[in-house]
């Protein structure tokens, strides 16, 4: 698992906390995912659905679920376990598939909010580049380098 994938899985795990997430939480997740240029939205969605969801979905079904962030080492070790032991993943996949169908509306909505914030950041970065004249940076005097 690449460092970018690890970071993405940790950030996407925030969607599994057993509480109503305010908009600033989605913005924070997007801000952390934004620098991961090697991960497309399709790849991020795959990580959410195929890597993080099978490990964490039960948290949303128990009364006393996790309200704070998940232990990163624990999360990544379970994801790695599922990757190494594909038989285990294959055996449990029907259950995860049914759970995804049941919960996909919620996660698709959350993912869309994160992607919308990332798109806003992308547009803001593009405007900043345009304002600085094709990527040039302003110095203290306001001149373009």
UniProtKB/TrEMBL annotation:
Give the domain of life: Eukaryota
**What are the residue boundaries of the DUF7079 domain, all occurrences included?**
5-116
What Pfam families does the record tag this protein with? DUF7079
Q: What is this protein called?
A: DUF7079 domain-containing protein
Q: Which organism is the protein's source?
A: Sphaerosporella brunnea
């Amino acid at each position: 698992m690449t460092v970018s994938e690890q970071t993405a899985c940790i950030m996407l795990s925030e969607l599994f906390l057993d509480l109503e997430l305010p908009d600033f939480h989605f913005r924070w997740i997007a801000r952390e995912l934004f620098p991961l240029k090697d991960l497309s939205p399709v790849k991020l969605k795959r990580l959410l659905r195929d890597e993080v969801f099978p490990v964490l979905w039960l948290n949303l079904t128990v009364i006393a679920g996790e309200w704070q962030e998940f232990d990163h080492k624990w999360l990544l070790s379970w994801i790695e376990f599922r990757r190494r032991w594909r038989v285990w993943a294959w055996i449990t996949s029907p259950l995860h598939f049914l759970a995804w169908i049941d919960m996909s509306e919620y996660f698709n909505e959350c993912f869309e909010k994160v992607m919308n914030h990332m798109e806003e950041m992308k547009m803001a970065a593009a405007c900043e580049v345009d304002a600085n004249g094709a990527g040039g940076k302003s110095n203290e005097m306001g001149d373009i380098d």
